[in-house]
Specification:
Strand content of chain B: over 45%
Distance between the termini of chain A: 37 Å
Structural class of chain B: mainly beta
Radius of gyration of chain B: 13 Å
Structural class of chain A: mainly beta
Shape of chain B: globular
Shape of chain A: globular
Number of strands of chain A: 11
Order of helices and strands of chain B: EEEEEEEEEEE
Strand content of chain A: over 45%
Oligomer: heterodimer
Number of strands of chain B: 11
Chain lengths: 110, 111
């Protein structure tokens, strides 16, 4: 089993719709969680950290479910510019080492 | 503005060649990382460094070495390139466990 698993997609979603992705992780001791965004042929960039209480940044909401060991990302009122690959990231046992999911590809259609 | 630069965007080498990939950050970050990214596998950590002259193996260090002589520069070396090292190589830097900032990547093809 991979340490961090994501549905690779692609998710094809009409503009304006709401879309959600889940990501599962295997290490129950993990303490820090992140969502990064990677545009086609570009480098990953931090989208948001995921806190235990859940957090929201504009149209984006991230939630953590420790009991079931998954994190989620919800995008409301999706825009064409949201088309990208979304990478789920979990801090590993080392304080420096991040464990990366393979990413979920999102395509927003007009 | 945060900046991580990598020496080449695209590189083509032959099997057996020694390859140097360089990464420079201007944010005075202690930590620097080298990853490779392959379709369906996500980012895999090759090596990281948390201080000058310090290095730690990541998940897939075989066939690679690194050098960090100055805080701002972290080099990845392929001692004898092989075709299975064809990949996208991404360098990143960070402060502690905070956000990792990435360079634009080097797409290496080994023939």
């Amino acid at each position: 089993r991979k340490e961090v698993e994501q549905d690779p997609g692609p998710f094809n979603v009409p503009e304006g719709a709401t879309v959600a992705f889940n990501c599962t992780y295997s290490n129950s001791a993990s303490q820090s969680f992140f969502w990064y965004r990677q545009d086609c042929r570009k480098e990953p960039k931090l989208l948001m950290s995921v806190y235990s209480s859940g957090n929201e940044d504009g149209r984006f909401t991230a939630q953590l479910n420790r009991a079931s060991q998954y994190i989620s990302l919800l995008i409301r009122d999706s825009k064409l510019s949201d088309s990208a690959t979304y990478l789920c990231v979990v801090l590993g046992d080392s304080n420096y080492q991040l464990i990366w999911g393979a990413g979920t590809k999102l395509i927003i259609k007009p | 503005d945060v900046k991580v630069t990598q020496s080449s965007r695209y590189l083509v080498k032959r099997t057996g060649e020694k390859v140097f990939l360089e990464c420079v950050q201007d944010m005075d970050h202690e930590n620097m990382f080298w990853y490779r990214q392959d379709p369906g596998l996500g980012l895999r950590l090759i090596y990281f460094s948390y201080d000058v002259k310090m290095k730690e193996k990541g998940d897939i260090p075989e066939g690679y070495s690194v050098s960090r002589e100055k805080k701002e520069r972290f080099s990845l070396i392929l001692e004898s390139a092989s075709t299975n090292q064809t990949s996208m190589y991404l360098c990143a830097s960070s402060v502690g466990t905070d956000t990792q900032y990435f360079g634009p990547g080097t797409r290496l093809t080994v023939l």
